[in-house]
Specification:
CATH superfamily of the largest domain: Formiminotetrahydrofolate cyclodeaminase monomer, up-and-down helical bundle
Distance between the termini: 43 Å
CATH architecture of the largest domain: Up-down Bundle
Number of strands: 13
Shape: flat
Strand content: 5-15%
Number of helices: 17
Order of helices and strands: EEHEEHEHEHHEEHEEEEHEHHHHHHHHHH
Number of domains: 3
Radius of gyration: 28 Å
CATH class of the largest domain: Mainly Alpha
């Protein structure tokens, strides 16, 4: 699964779009990076750009953008309402999928070091990428803004994390960091009252509302001994909110920024707003997502609402998204298309690079039966494994809904979740096996005219061959893991579906044996004999145990057939 990060550089130019175009044009030169949004502001004289993709490509695009901004933006002439201290003012990296915050921090610091060393810009690392606690807060790094940089850089306390402590009049400085994803999200209310929407916003936002003496609305605001306003905290952490009236829709909304969705997810904010609105005599009619959000926002929400219904969460990704959209009312004001709103979907391959698993079943069969050597036995083995574990997952889901078994829904939901995860991994391996075959073909097509070319070609063939061994070996491992679910469903699942579990066992056993054939034939062309011995020994053990488990499960299945 691809690691995906988002990068949101802010450039100190929001009026001259020819300047911004030069920056975004450089971003577009990096293959694999998607330019998601360009948002200029004339009053702030600032443009926020959003890009996403795999980490290495994203930080390459970010570096190119920072370099171009250094060339085309003159900070000595910059005026705007927003705080700023550099041509590229801030450049945060945000983990989106299959990547941890710790890994994202590593990439942020890698980018920061390159910017400091190669471009000579003073770099301050902030948020999760900060080396110094005081620098976690962006406002601390940017205090004094551009005009205060000469004095700040002369202070040893504010020595940059990377780059020289030198004032660059045209460029200024930059803050590079790693932060959590921010979701802009609006809750729709059945009222036109901004005041009442604000009341709900104050109920839920972390900051809360001012504490007052006597009357909670008109009373004098309470202040502490330092003269600062005292607030009554709201119910949600990492949540900012305000109420407003939207002329376009004719309703009031609670406008929310969720600054850390691992602390307060979208579905939690929605349910809390529902609760607070009801307490004030209002009803939430739906909600609105502003911009894009990671897939996890929707799958987590789908699972949350299924759990509330005491239904199995082990359903497909598309079903989880459908449940999330309907439960959150994301289609209340206008149609909601997941392909346009989920970051991972926006980044998906174009139709010209269509995958095997995007084909219909009949098209896949036709492609397999054609004169093309791929897809071959490896892809078919992975698909058999996916179908086998899918049958076990089906039995788990049917069991969770079986009349009279209502108190066991969580038990079977857990099995279905495991099955869905294995199914998804095996589906990815269907195409990856064909990709592995293509890597070998590409390696064999490399030139071999000179001694150096011959060495490079041989190394490429060996590397591609090793990869072509690792993919079917992974198919074996994942297919074998499916036996645990299949055996459980044969033993304790809905007895009316026991033969489905049996067919699943036959399918994953064939997947294991078929994938092992691929491991063996690819291993025959590898020079690393120690590695070959290791993978063949591992594969033989998995194959032996797969045969034993198939026999064990089929004995259980046949004993239950009346």
């Amino acid at each position: 699964m691809k690691q995906i990060i988002e990068c949101v550089p802010n450039f100190s130019e929001g009026r001259d779009m020819s300047v911004i175009k030069q920056i975004t044009d450089d971003i577009r030169t990096v293959e694999g990076v998607k330019l998601l949004d360009v948002d200029p502001g004339a009053a702030t004289n600032r443009t926020v750009v959003t890009i996403a993709g795999e980490p290495e490509q994203v930080i390459e695009a970010a570096f190119k953008a920072i370099k171009k901004a250094m060339e085309v933006i003159d900070m000595s002439r910059h005026k705007g309402e927003h705080p700023r201290f550099g041509a590229t003012d801030v450049c945060p990296l945000v983990p989106i999928s299959n990547i941890t915050m710790e890994e994202t921090v590593t990439y942020a610091r890698k980018l920061a070091e390159r910017v400091g060393n190669e471009l000579g810009i003073p770099v301050f690392c902030y948020e999760n990428a900060a080396f110094i606690e005081e620098r976690r807060n962006l406002a601390n790094n940017r205090s004094g803004e551009y005009e205060g940089l000469p004095k700040k850089l002369a202070d040893p306390v504010w020595k940059p994390d990377f780059g020289p402590a030198t004032f660059l009049p045209r460029t200024g400085a930059i803050a590079i960091g790693a932060r959590d994803f921010l979701v802009a999200y609006n809750i729709n209310l059945n009222t036109t009252s901004t005041r009442r929407a604000n009341a709900v916003a104050f109920d839920i936002r972390e900051k809360g509302r001012p504490m007052r003496e006597g009357d909670p609305i008109t009373g004098k605001i309470v202040k502490d001994e330092h003269g600062n306003q005292v607030n009554i905290p709201g119910s949600l952490k990492a949540c900012k909110a305000i109420g407003w009236f939207i002329e376009e829709y004719g309703i009031a909304q609670v406008s929310i920024n969720l600054t850390n969705i691992s602390i307060t997810p979208v579905h939690v904010a929605f349910d809390e707003a529902v609760k607070k609105a009801q307490e004030r005599g209002m009803r939430v009619t739906g909600s609105e997502l502003v911009g894009l959000a990671p897939l996890k926002v929707f799958t987590d929400a789908g699972k949350y609402f299924l759990q509330k219904q005491q239904r199995s969460t082990g359903v497909s990704e598309s079903e989880l998204i459908k449940i999330a959209v309907k439960s959150l009312g994301l289609d209340d004001l206008k149609p909601f298309n997941p392909k346009d709103k989920i970051i991972e979907y926006v980044l998906q391959d174009t139709p010209s690079s269509k995958k095997l698993m995007d084909m219909t079943c009949s098209d896949f069969a036709d492609e397999t039966a054609s004169e093309s050597p791929a897809p071959g036995g490896g892809s078919i083995s992975a698909y058999m494994g996916a179908l086998g574990v899918s049958l076990a997952t089906m039995v788990a889901n049917l069991s969770s809904h079986k009349p009279g078994w209502d108190d066991r829904w969580e038990e079977f939901s857990g099995w279905a979740d495991k099955g869905q995860q294995l199914k998804n991994e095996l589906i990815l391996l269907v195409d990856e096996d064909t990709n592995a075959f293509n890597k070998i073909m590409d390696a064999f097509s490399l030139p071999k005219n000179t001694d150096e070319e011959k060495i490079n070609r041989t190394e490429a063939i060996q590397s591609a061959t090793k990869y072509a061994i690792e993919i079917p070996l992974r198919v074996m491992v994942k297919s074998f893991e499916a036996f645990e679910i299949i055996k459980a469903m044969a033993e304790i699942g809905n007895p009316n579906s026991v033969t489905d579990a049996g067919v699943g066992a036959l399918a994953v056993r064939s997947a294991v044996l078929g994938a092992y054939l691929n491991v063996k034939i690819n291993a025959s062309g590898l020079k690393d004999k120690e590695y070959v011995e290791k993978v063949l020994t591992e594969g033989a053990e998995i194959e032996k145990n797969a045969r034993l488990l198939e026999d064990e499960i089929m004995t259980i299945v046949n004993s239950k057939i009346k």
